[in-house]
Design goal:
The protein is mainly α. About 60% of the residues lie in helices and about 0% in strands. Helix 3 crosses helix 4.
Amino acid sequence: MEQHRARLEEMLRTRGPGSRPASHGRYTLIGQPETLVIVERMETNPFGLRGQWEKELEDVLLDDLEFAWGPRIRLSR
């Protein structure tokens, strides 16, 4: 987390609760505690994350977070 503190703060500020995009119902996960775990998986095991995610949750939630985080490997369609 310390390594990505500035990036996390920027994502929270620009797309987190109270932001303009969030007011339109986007970026639901940003600001939730589990976001830290999800972005850690995006950085370390993005293909595994996407594979598990598609079995359980709506793709749009991960797609939005992935766009906001801007991982090195883009997995969304």
